[in-house]
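Changelog-linked ticket: adenosine-5'-diphosphate example.
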Amino acid sequence: MRLLIMGPPGAGKGTQSAIIGEHYRIPAISTGNIFRLAITNRTPLGERIKRIISEGGYVPDSLTLKVVVSRLNEPDAADGWLLDGFPRTARQVNALDAELAKDGAALDAVVSITADEEAIIHRMLKRAEIEGRPDDNEETIRNRMEVYHEQTDPLLDIYRERGMLVEVDGMGTVDEVSARVLAALAERLGR
Ligand code: ADP
């Protein structure tokens, strides 16, 4: 099973990915988490990207692609995965296509979590108080939203045209949304 989960920042992709990953027994791979861990551990990658992330910009494709390709080549990802937060740019879409083609593999579905923008900005500001993510302040959140609209939202059309998009309303409680996601995937995938 090879899945993507897409949607605006703060739509709850991370939470839903963990639930989907557990359900289908595939690793949920979040580029945001990988980057945050690198920053916490002060690795060379972390040092290069911490400023970009704290300002809400995108990490350059070259770095992101290295990280993702190497993660997809780990043994636990051999038979499937769920990618959360990747692809985010047109170049990343193309690189993922190329990576899949190498293995003669294909995506099974792309989950798109939709959400009301003002509601998620509010939710992220609340999360900022609880988790203290350095990129969860209002200015950065607005910037992340803008970058998302410019670079990532248009990518949904690519997957829609391929007939792969499974759109799910992301408003509501975690349980309500996960029930919707799993039902929509079951209908699409037949399992
Ligand atoms: P959110 O979806 O809430 O914005 P993520 O955890 O997915 O948060 O990502 C956090 C940050 O990590 C992004 O704002 C961006 O700076 C960086 N990032 C994550 N994934 C990518 C990617 N595929 N390409 C470029 N930058 C990325």
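Closing comment: Example verified and attached. The chain is about 60% helix and 10% strand. The two ends are 10 Å apart (CA to CA).
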